[in-house]
């Protein structure tokens, strides 16, 4: 079970890294999301979103190697996927492209993985439930 939390963080990092290609422009954004991007301002916002996904993916991947960051990374991953799923669920017209529906299902899987990893992490957390001090030594 030692590999569970780092493994999930790596998988979720890869999921968040996939949209980074959107930074390359409107053509890649259409491939990713199945919706044409005809407005230059919207293209800029979506390309910036791709950069932010890259930053989150980098953090999740780095945190996989740092047990002291596991909890923060799990919270960040959960915030990302649940916010998207909530927004997709609240979509007024309910009409999502096939590409966006695929993103929804990938995020549902990521949410499940993150919830399992959070449970494993919390079961292994020191009594008191607080985060360990960086560099603190755990004694048996």
What do these coordinates show?
With 140 residues, the protein is mainly α. It has one domain (4-123). The chain has 5 helices and no strands. The chain has helices at 4-17, 26-33, 40-64, 70-90, 98-123. Helix 3 (40-64) packs antiparallel against helix 4 (70-90). It is globular and about 50 Å long. Mean pLDDT is 89; it is low at 127-133 and 136-140.
Name a few traits of the molecule:
140 residues; mainly alpha; 5 helices; 67% helix; disordered C terminus
Q: Averaging pLDDT over every residue, what do you get?
A: 89
Uncertain regions: pLDDT < 50 for 5+ in a row?
A: 127-133, 136-140
Question: What is the share of helical residues?
Answer: 55-70%
Q: Identify the overall geometry.
A: globular
Order of helices and strands: HHHHH
Structural class category: mainly alpha
The total count of helices amounts to 5
Tell me the span between the first and last alpha carbons: 19 Å
Radius of gyration: 17 Å
- Major beta sheet summary: none
Structure summary, number of beta strands:
0
Number of domains: 1
Approximate strand percentage: under 5%
Produce the secondary structure layout.
Blueprint: H1 4-17, H2 26-33, H3 40-64, H4 70-90, H5 98-123
Helix pairs in contact: 1-3, 1-4, 1-5, 3-4, 4-5
In a nutshell, what does this entry contain?
With 140 residues, this protein is mainly α. It is 67% helix and 0% strand.
